[in-house]
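STRUCTURE:
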């Protein structure tokens, strides 16, 4: 008299498996579509919140000498000296750069927040080797 009931379980109660499967398929597609939009929104927002920080390398050293970053930030080191330099992270916080010739850059995108120090591998003070033993003739 009033048409079919909108109850999604109506078809199961009345033995109509075909309609139940169709209703279930529509429900699952809506759920998948909603999840896809949610993931896309999160991925679109993350790059918008990240920043790029620059560090200059000169004969006097790095400017700034330490950076504080958030997840997803990128740091770009630029060699503004006439000599070669190489960026080395304190405590291995990020991969060591290749040797940077004048005007070359090295960038790294961080996956952790924090404050990170670095130094010049090519100018870092080297520790003296340990004592050597002489073998007796």
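SEQUENCE:
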């Amino acid at each position: 008299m009033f048409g079919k009931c909108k109850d999604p379980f109506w078809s199961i109660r009345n033995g109509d498996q075909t309609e139940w499967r169709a209703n279930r398929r529509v429900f699952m597609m809506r759920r998948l579509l909603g999840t896809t939009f949610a993931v896309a929104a999160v991925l679109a927002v993350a790059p918008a919140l990240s920043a790029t920080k620059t560090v200059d390398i000169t004969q006097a050293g790095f400017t700034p000498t330490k950076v504080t970053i958030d997840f997803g930030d990128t740091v770009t080191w630029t060699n503004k000296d006439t000599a070669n330099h190489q960026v080395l992270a304190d405590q291995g916080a990020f991969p060591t750069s290749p040797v940077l010739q004048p005007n070359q850059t090295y960038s790294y995108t961080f996956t952790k927040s924090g404050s990170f120090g670095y130094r010049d591998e090519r100018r870092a003070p080297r520790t003296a080797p340990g004592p050597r033993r002489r073998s007796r003739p």
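REMARK: The beta strands are 52-58, 61-63, 66-69, 74-79, 87-89, 105-109, 114-120.
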